[in-house]
Structures are given as C-alpha cells and as structure tokens.
Amino acid sequence: MRSAANGAGETERSRTVQGRPNGREQPPSQARHNGQPEPARRGNQESAPSAGRYWSGLLFSQRRSAQSPPCGGTQTGVDVGAHHFCRFVGIANRDAIDEHESVTIICPAAPEHGRTLYNGRLFVGDRLLSESSMARHLLTPMTDLDIVAVLSRQTPHPVALIPLPVVRRGSAAIAPRIAALRADGVRDIIVDALDEADLLAIAATGVHLGVITGSAGLAGALGKVLHDRDLNDVDPPSVPAPAGPIAIFAGSCSQATLGQVAHAIECYPSYRLDPRSVENTTDLYPDALAWLAENLGTTPVLMYSSAPASERGPADATVAAELERMMGGLAAAAVAGGAHRIIVAGGETSGAVVDALGVKAVLVNAEMDTGVPWCSTVDTNPVTLLLKSGNFGKPDLLVRAATVAELG
After folding, report:
1. Distance CA 285, CA 254 (A)
2. What is the Cα Rg of the chain in Å?
3. 246 and 337 in contact (C-beta within 8 Å)?
4. Which of 75, 84, 246, 372 is a Cys-bridge partner for 300, taking CB atoms 3.0 to 4.6 Å apart?
5. 46, 324, 81, 327: which is closest to 201 by C-alpha?
6. Helices (H), 90-243
7. Domains of the chain (ranges, CATH numbers)
8. Would you give the end-to-end CA distance of the chain in angstroms?
9. How far out from the chain centre does Cα 355 lie?
10. Which one, of 267, 239, 334, lies nearest residue 296 by Cα?
11. What is the pLDDT of residues 126-140, one digit of tens each?
12. What pLDDT score does 87 carry?
C-alpha cells in the first residue's frame, strides 16, 4: 500500500509530529481558529456531492476511547459498524460492497470540547491526550496517540491520514485525496480537524459515504450539512419526558462528572459503590441492589462510583471493569423496577449500561447540553437514556436531566 503523498517523497504516515500548531508556527488559515470561517470554505462545502434530502448511511459513533481493545481480535469498531451497515442494506460483507462505499473517514475531534486531531494525534486543549489525565485511564489508558498506528494494529485493512493542510483546502482537495487513497486499497482514513469549519468540510465531503466514524463533533457537522441541503425545514416535535422512577448512574472520575455528582448528592438520595470498603469488589453488588430496590420511587436516586483520586484506591483495571459491570446490572434492575428515565455519566459506564439493557438502536432526541442528547430505545418497552462522556455537561446537568418535563 502506498501512503498518501505529501510533497516530494514524503508520506503522511512517516511525518514526525513535534506538537500542535501554535502562534509561532501556524498551518494555513490557522488564524480563523479565533474568528469566523472563511467564506471560501463555505463555497468548497457546497461543491461536494449532494446527499439529497435524506442521508442513507451510518454514522458510527466512537463510544470507546482510541486505545480500546480491538473488537473481535483484528477488527476495529469501524469494521463492525461497516458490517452492520452491509447487513442493513442487504450486502454480504464489507468486501462485497462497491469500492465507493468500502471507504470510511474517521475523525474523533470535538473542538467545542477542546478535543482536536492534528497529524493524526489527539489533543486536549494544547496538550497531547497522552499528557493529560486520560493517560492514566483505568480501562483505556491513552499512551499511543498515533491514531493511524493504533487502528492499523486492530484491522487487516490499510489505514492512512489526510492531514490538516488538505482539509483546509476544503472538499475540492479532500475528495480527490479520498479517491487516491481508495485506489491504493485504503479503507480507513483518519482526517485531521482543529475547528468546526474543518469538521464541516469533512462532513460535506463524506456525506455520500456509507459509513462515517466520529464523535459528537463530526455528528453535529453532518447534521448541519444535511439540514442546509434540506429545503423543507421541520420543527422537531416536543417530546415529553417519561413518567415514573428516575435513576442516575455515574462512573466517570472526570472533573466535570465529580462536580455534577456533588450537586446531585445535595438533591437526591445517593449510594456510593466504594471498592475500598470490601475485600472483593463483587461484594458491593448485593447491598447496592437492595438499596436501589428500597429507594427507587417518586424521588430520583443517584448511584455512583465516581470519586477524586484522594478517595480512590490504587489504580486497578479489574476493579474498574467490575464497577462498570455492576453499574450496568443496577441500571437493568432499575428498568425492571419501573424506571424509564436512566441518566448515565461516563463513557465506559454508558457502554456498560447499554450492554446490560441489550440496546440495539435508539432514536436521538434533543440535546440536554452540548454533545449530550436524549436517546430513546425502540423496543416494545422503551427507555429514555441520557448518556454522557465524563467531561461533558454543565455542573447541574444530572439534576436538570432528572427534573425536566420535556426532552430538550
């Protein structure tokens, strides 16, 4: 496989990253990071292929972190998502689909939340993610931030990068680069993005692809691209919040979640799962389950394992995984007990809850906070979920989510 060329003899995969662009060494148009997008960028977006009124594709959201274990050995979550898309449209597998649809672009950037991607490396603010607290995440430590390398270890398919200078030239440059990489046999294409304008250019270019992979940032950009091309604007209907018991589950130890949990503790009955209090972590579950059964009712309840570093034991991935599993079990017990509004703080905790509830698909409703939408399951006994990443949401998010009468 030939990596995407960037000048004479230089390849995207061989470039060395010294750091994110700063005021002394800015990439093209970096100045607009502090201002409005350039008008030319809008023109480039409009030149991308039209998606029509509806988008017939799949946005595969990255629930787990970049360092998550491979899905099924040598499969990324992208491979799994593409497999399900193929089944949805009646195609045997990813190898059998048209070469145009076999490619996916991948962009985990969410600039609104300080998450950016430059030269294939993830940043939080102006720091590499590997230099942030996520480097010490119990389940998914961020130690290797070369996303091309990380995905290459998880899939048999070639992976390549479209760097920021190409993205800054808009769809007119991104589209032919995707075509060239596709011709080289590349299937998974990482795309740099520092701001919302970059995401809009990526979304406008990739809107015709069958599978797009990204975080809330790319999802929002895709929604804007589709909305701008829809001539028939429709005001979304008001969706009433479900009646009945309400349960909140928090497993993230991020600063944002710790503040939200502290606020919720002041308002609602709460129960902490503290692994330091027992010899075996599994011993926490019976008492927690009994407390939930006794307290689930007319007042929202909070169950949490979130705690600052000073109130946690030594880092132990096995303990962390067991806590997440218990949170999922408690959420399932709450639903069985009549709760139809489940609020979850933490990405891994959200994954455990979704798995425990057997959720296969949801309808996405209005946002409660930026990047934190309400979701409703589509089975015969629907449950309304608020699933949030640890660092997302305002300080009172958990309390507001437990008290609103309408989802929005």
Report:
1. 23
2. 22
3. no
4. 246
5. 46
6. 147-152, 164-167, 171-183, 196-206, 216-228
7. 53-228 (3.40.50.10840), 246-403 (3.40.980.20)
8. 47
9. 16
10. 334
11. 777 666 555 555 556
12. 43
